[in-house]
Design brief:
The complex is a heterodimer of chains A (751) and B (183). Chain A is α+β, with helices and mostly antiparallel strands and 751 residues long. Chain A has 18 helices and 28 strands. Chain A is 28% helix and 25% strand. Chain B is an alpha+beta fold. The chains are: A alpha+beta (751), B alpha+beta (183).
Amino acid sequence: MSIMGTRVVRVEDPVFLSRGATYTDDLTDERLTGALHLTLVRSPLAHARITSIDVTEARSAPGVVAVVTGTELDIAPALLFGGAHKAMTRPFLATDLVRFVGEPVAAVLTEEAYQGQDAADLVEVDYEPLPAVIDLVEAASDATLLFPEAGTNTSNGFSHEKEFDPAFFEGCDVVVTKEIVNQRLAAAPLETRAASAVWGDDGRVTLWLSTQNAQSARDEIAGWLGLDAATLHLITPDVGGGFGAKIGADPEHALVVRLAQQTGRPVRWNESRSENMTGMVQGRAQRQTITIGGNREGDVLAYRLDVIQDAGAYPRLGAVLPMFTRMMAPGVYDFPKVESRARVVVTNTTSTAAYRGAGRPEATAAVERAMDLYAAEIGKDAAEVRRRNLLQPEQFPLKTKGGAPYDSGEYEKALDMVLDAAGYAALRAEQAKRRENGEVVQLGIGVSVFVEITGGGAFSEDAAVEVHADGTVTVLTGTSPHGQGHATAWAMLASDHLGIPIEKITVKHGDTDLIPRGQGTMGSRSLQTGGVAVHKAAGELIELAKQRAADVLEANVDDLEIVAGGSVAVRGTETAITLAELADREPLKVETNFDSGAPSFPFGAHVAVVEVDTESGKAVVDRIFTVDDAGPVLNPLLCEGQRHGGIAQGISQALLEEVSYDADGNPLTATFADYGIPSAAELPSFTLLDMATPTPLNPLGVKGIGEAGTIGATPAVQSAVIDAVSHLGVRHIDMPLTPVKVWSAIQEASK
Amino acid sequence: MKVEITVNGERTSADVEPRLLLVHYLRDVQGLKATNVGCDTTSCGACTVLLDGESVKACTLLAAQADGLEVTTAEGLSPDAEHLHPVAAAFRAEHGLQCGFCTPGMVMATVGLLTENPKPTEREVREGLEGNLCRCTGYHNIVRAVLAASGQDPDGPREDGHAELAPAGGVEAAPGFSTGGDA
């Protein structure tokens, strides 16, 4: 019997719930004794020329050991995303120009943490303000350039120079087009960014870093600093959430390493939340134009998606994400014709990168909006129009019009399941009654059907499993948890093969000396790559153990089996040897790699039921029903946890969250008091429905689950709110659907 | 200035800057790192501790304001990993934590909530924990954990009438395998 599918409580939790996890700022490693505290002086202006920096007074403030400006810093400006325009490099401390509020300008190093801000306030920087570019269309016009030497604000693009086919919608009875916003979001992990570094006498540096992938972060930082990657020993302590924004390294992390070298002292850095809300990469930030055409019966004939992606001031991972948006443009639908293009522009804002879903929620939100607008235009039920256009199971595997190699999917089954659970017909009847009665609080029902990519871009992962002579097991993985529960899940996978209970299995990750190769945890990739690698390594270890046991027990390998407790036994006899005993004779360890060679495509369907107060515009999600099919489930407890978190962030994008700037580029949402992270009071309990369609791409049949919730829930909730007021003439409201926006849309429609 | 604060039942004292926040007194002076700092606007509640039994945000109090008072942190609630306080144990059983950063504060806020309202409804739990943010769990399992910790069945009827559809939490037996604990 397999442990697959069993609810196993986490092995991480007892420590997390008593003395607490050990995050980077909690470290008490003796090598950090006497560490200096780094405080950064950051630009208060979005776009300006630095005319002078005076650090005299700051240098004489109490506890100050050093104040470093860009001209005194030994790090050359770097291109943070290789695909960007070559002139769009970022200085590690700005010297001439600042390009977003929050850009580091000077570094202050003090003996005590509290002294840092005191001294930073004494650094006098004179700025000559320049016009700020915030609006994406204005940025694309190149009227004001962020990098004059580039001659353009376009960082890069994906078929962005191509002209759309003017005859693309010929033959369509109905064509609907709409410009929509997929707003900028803050990942806002509860643990802000943190790093600590110390140089040793051996010429190597140890860097403790809150990151989602230690090995990539090591390579990035080494590249920026001109160091051999082997010089860096990067250790990832417990990480307090990431959501994509802790993928790789940030410029500040390189500063910590270099400043520790320049001062000859260990250096610690832990940013404040306000710094985090301007300094940490943000997500989404697309302006999209959707055009959909079809006949009056409900068959979509052509779909077009035109994207402008906001890269922020210095292009990073966000600049590549429209590639995924284009790839997933047609989603679950069998559209005869699809075309798309995407332009990436720089603006005087915080850089964008991955945030839970990273390019795919933007695709789903666009196509689901398009389906709603089309259904409304032809006067048909939005769920039925979706059903009519879905790809069918017998079409798999297939290459889509977006270029994605879909592995497996049963979209109609997912849609039926969620509509049944929600009681769709009864909800529509309730809605009709409320409309008829002209009730103030109206009911809205939103449906989304989605497919996404998981394990995209990094298909390969290493794992090692070793049984020790004392009967314990060590698992090494190149994935890197920050809340997902890998220590439990990977121990389950090893236990499943070895028969050794999970309490005796220790999972290690995020130490680049111990695990030099690894891709980390992002893009919902862990289980289908790293987990499968652990499964494979444990399986290989069993084969090795059987061969050795065959010699010791003088038995035929084919007659041996693994029994609970971790022994190799001759089938049907009492003759056995434990894995521990085998390990005592000769090290019992297997290192392996698993390469899926391709991403997988989990899918699902969500129904959101909302109530909208038509007098105030306030929308409340009453219920949400979700099918999130990621193949067979290893540990339902962990899988449901991932779904819950994603659904919450999806609802929150639809209703609450938006990073916003005024016209001068001042951030208006730079604290948790201003940015709409939901509390428990703003969310309902969720109704999860189970469906498991395996992928042929790995032996466990598993796909990724981490991002499903954000991808499915966001459009379902947006659709539900618009649905609640559609009888008043409202067809579209941009996210987030705040009370003022909903109220304004109702007023506008009634004119 | 000198402060004397009873922390987790033990008397502590130190000479501190008047501006030292209670949370930094706990973390940096006393070395109790379970209490976290997640924001600078009293919004997130990661720093929640009990002050004379009542839940407060330790980032908004000066150490000086706790002079002569009793503070309880997560470390004081559950003395070690093998002996979890019932609220902490419920968080584990219901998977009410992921990255763990909000967790000590969330648990302390729950203890405060249940002291005031021993049998809260789901709505009361949600509103009672409004001052504590979690970015990982979507609160679904936190709410279940609080209901379970209050002695109520998290799968039982809820006042919103949708309870029959809420997924079950808890732990199944796995024949032949350990499930990692007795929760």
